[in-house]
Design goal:
Elements (H helix, E strand, L loop, with lengths): L1 H55 L4 H7 L4 E5 L3 H10 L5 E6 L13 E3 L10 E4 L5 H10 L4 E4 H7 L1
Parallel strand pairs: 1-2, 1-4, 2-3, 4-5
Amino acid sequence: MKLVIIIILMVLLIVTNAFLIYLLNYNSKFLEAEKGKSEKQTIYYNLTLCWLRKRAQGKRISDYLERNHLQKVAIYGINDVGRCLYEELRKSPVQVMYLIDRNGADIPFEVSVEVHKPEDELNGIDCVIVAALLSYRNIERQLKDRGVGVILPLDEIIYQL
C-alpha cells in the first residue's frame, strides 16, 4: 500500500513539474513576442516623431525625392507608416505609381492606385520606398534579385531631410 501511494505521488510530481515547465516555456515565448512588439513600436514612434519635426520645419519627403530626381515611386509596406507616406506623397508632385504589400489588395484603407504583391511585375518607377522597416534587408534583397534599381528605407529619407 505504501508503495502504491509513493508511486502515485511520484507520478503527480512528474506531471506537475512537466506542467510547470510548459507554463514557463509558454510565458517566455509570450514575453519575447511582447518585447518584439515594444521594440517595433519604439522604432516607429521615433521615426514618426522625427518626421513630424521635419514637417514642422517645412521639410517634405517629396522635396527629398525631387532633389534626387525620383518622380515615380512605389511604396512597399502598407502599415500605418506606409499609409501616412502614401497620404503625404499623393498630395505632392511625386507620383505614387502603386503600392506593394505581401497581402496584395487586402489593405485597410482606400487608395487610388494599384496594389501589387512583391512577386508581381514592378515596372515604371524610379524607386521603391520601403515603409516595412523591420524587414528592410530581406525586402531589399528580394527587390534587387528582381532587378529593382533604387530601393530606399523610409527612415533613411526622413533622417536626411
